[in-house]
Structure formats: structure tokens, C-alpha cells
Write a structure and sequence with these properties.
The chain has six helices and no strands. By secondary structure, it is an all-alpha fold.
């Protein structure tokens, strides 16, 4: 929301473009492959980042937090989060930025969450 209103310098469209495209521009590969497409990739990335929250809200509304209920929407939300984090890790790894460290940590926490839910479901089905 903040980037649409431009309330903070870093949270405006131009602030994010300067930061992200600036990081991509540091390496020739990402400068050539990603920087020219920032204006198309950024809205897709924003939508992909919202998708896990929507899926988790659906999971909550379907009361999947109750033990014994299948966790279809919850797992879909976690997988969506893993996908968007993987895409961000890929671009940031190619660019050689330090952001990739926290992205990998977030990715591993999401993976552990998915693994935990899978194991809980298997334990309840036995």
C-alpha cells in the first residue's frame, strides 16, 4: 500500500525501481535480462507476493486450523510463498546482492512450515 501512495522514498514505485533495478544493474547478465523489464516484472511480483496471504485467508475461512481437516489451502499458500521467494532468490543471486541471505532464510522457514504441516497430516491419518 505504501508504495502506491508514495509515502516513503523507498516505498514509491521509483524508489523500488531505483533499488531493485539498481541492484540488477550491478551485473551484466541481470542488467541485460531483467532491468529493461522491471516495469512489467514488478507488478507481477507484487501480485505474487499477495497471493500467499489470500490463500492463507481462504485457509482460515475454511477453518483448516482445526485438527483433522485437510490443509489444502494452507499448503497452497505456503507453496505460493516458496515460489515467489524462489523467483526473488534467483534474480538476487544472479545480481549478487546481499538481500539473498534473508530471502534464503525466509525460504527455509517456509519449507520447514510446509514440511511440518505435511508431517502433522500424516500423523493424524495414521
Amino acid at each position: 500500500m505504501a508504495f502506491s501512495f508514495g509515502t516513503y522514498a523507498g516505498d514509491s514505485w521509483s524508489g523500488w525501481k531505483e533499488y531493485i533495478a539498481g541492484n540488477w544493474a550491478k551485473k551484466p547478465v541481470t542488467d541485460f535480462l531483467l532491468v529493461p523489464f522491471f516495469d512489467y516484472l514488478f507488478p507481477v511480483l507484487m501480485l505474487l507476493q499477495v497471493l500467499p496471504f489470500i490463500l492463507l485467508a481462504v485457509s482460515f475461512l475454511k477453518m483448516e486450523f482445526i485438527p483433522g481437516k485437510p490443509k489444502l489451502w494452507l499448503k497452497a499458500g505456503i507453496l505460493a510463498s516458496l515460489f515467489v521467494t524462489s523467483a526473488m532468490c534467483f534474480s538476487q543471486t544472479l545480481a549478487g546482492t546481499s538481500d539473498v541471505q534473508y530471502l534464503f532464510q525466509f525460504w527455509s522457514v517456509s519449507l520447514l512450515g510446509f514440511w511440518y504441516i505435511e508431517n502433522q497430516e500424516k500423523a493424524l491419518l495414521k
